[in-house]
Amino acid sequence: MMKPTILCYPKCGTCQKAEKWLKSNGIEYTYRPIKEENPTKAEIAEWLKKSGLPVSRFFNTSGLLYKEQNMKDKVRVLPEAELIDILATNGLMVKRPVLLTGNKVLVGFKEEDWKAVFGK
């Protein structure tokens, strides 16, 4: 398995939990700061395919930006392409952590899902 990449925000508690889990399971990974290295539209479109999730699941629904921009309503009505544009404008709009392995993408940290990916 190629070394996974996780996109995180250092102040995010869920990201900290995910990193702790990876370290305690001896899994080497590449860290990518989501705020400084914002996901591109092409990356997000690829992640949607690999994750099998709807674009709405990629939004950080508890984030300030999400609330300030009334995204709850917009996510229901805007076309996928526009939602991808919004996600690509600010990494803090994206739910974290994002785990990238060769052909899988996980959004958020659910230990059971991560165990399944790494066979732990």
Walkthrough of the structure:
- The protein has 120 residues and is α+β, with helices and mostly antiparallel strands.
- The chain has a single domain, classed as Glutaredoxin.
- It has 6 helices and 4 strands, in the order βαβααααββα.
- It has helices spanning 13-24, 41-51, 64-68, 71-77, 80-89, 111-118, and strands spanning 5-8, 30-33, 98-100, 105-107.
- Strands 2-1-3-4 form a 4-stranded mixed sheet.
- It is globular.
- It starts with a strand and ends with a helix.
- Our count of helices gives 6
Order of strands, main sheet, comes to 2-1-3-4
Please trace the helix and strand order, writing H or E for each element.
EHEHHHHEEH
Percent strand = 5-15%
Number of β-strand runs: 4
Poorly predicted segments: none
Kindly report the name of the CATH homologous superfamily: Glutaredoxin
CATH architecture: 3-Layer(aba) Sandwich
Would you tell me the structural class of the helices and strands?
alpha+beta
For this structure, the CATH topology is Glutaredoxin
- Distance between the terminal alpha carbons, to the nearest Å? 14 Å
* Number of domains as seen in the coordinates: 1
Task: Describe the sheet with the most strands.
Answer: 4 strands, mixed
Mean pLDDT: 95
**Helicity, as a percent range:** 40-55%
The geometry reads as globular
Please report the first level of CATH classification, the CATH class.
Alpha Beta
Radius of gyration of CA atoms, rounded to a whole number: 14 Å
